[in-house]
Design a protein that fits this description.
The chain is 73% helix and 0% strand. The chain has 175 residues and is mostly helical.
Length: 175
């Protein structure tokens, strides 16, 4: 258990650093479309969900390979953590901007940080409790579906608010 907690803390640090760097990577690579699949290509909330999803997915593979024999429920727990953490980004963002009627940079950063902590706390807790074992296939499929959605919606986004740059949203929402 001590090793798992240690690796969860390392994972939090890894995702925070990798996600922060990923925010700029698309521009740094001259708008490389392959990089754009895994990193934000614009300022939409959807694209910013990638900041948690892909670094945590990568780290989850490492955790699962390292601990799958010792912690039998690590796979569904990390899948659930990825999903919850990723979806907490728009939940927190739209909640605070709804009430404040504007977005605030420090709250945007705090949203990312809090989402990462929540994702790893959930992953750690459910790995120990093993309550998600029967949901392993469903959770893995849901992560795969979200992965495919990122692939498709990066360059072919639906016409929905989550795919738009928040500065382009109607004045009714953010004023």
């Amino acid at each position: 258990m001590k090793h798992l907690k240690h690796y969860a803390i390392i994972g939090i640090i890894f995702v925070l650093i990798a996600g922060t760097l990923a925010h700029f990577l698309f521009d740094w690579t001259g708008n490389n479309p392959i990089v754009g699949v895994f990193t934000p290509i614009n300022e939409s909330i959807w694209e910013h969900m990638k900041l948690l999803f892909f670094p945590m997915l990568l780290y989850s593979f490492i955790m699962i390979l390292k601990f799958h024999q010792k912690y039998l429920c690590i796979t569904p727990s990390f899948c659930f953590g990825i999903l919850v953490g990723t979806f907490f980004i728009p939940l927190l963002y739209y909640s605070y901007t709804f009430f404040l009627r504007k977005n605030i940079f420090i709250l945007d950063i705090s949203t990312f940080i809090l989402s990462v902590f929540i994702a790893f706390w959930i992953s750690y807790s459910y790995t120990l409790s093993c309550k998600l074992a029967s949901y392993t296939p469903l959770l893995c499929i849901m992560v795969c579906i979200l992965f495919v959605c990122f692939l498709i919606f990066t360059f072919h986004p639906p016409d929905a608010m989550i795919f738009q740059d928040p500065t382009d949203l109607p004045a009714l929402y953010l004023t």
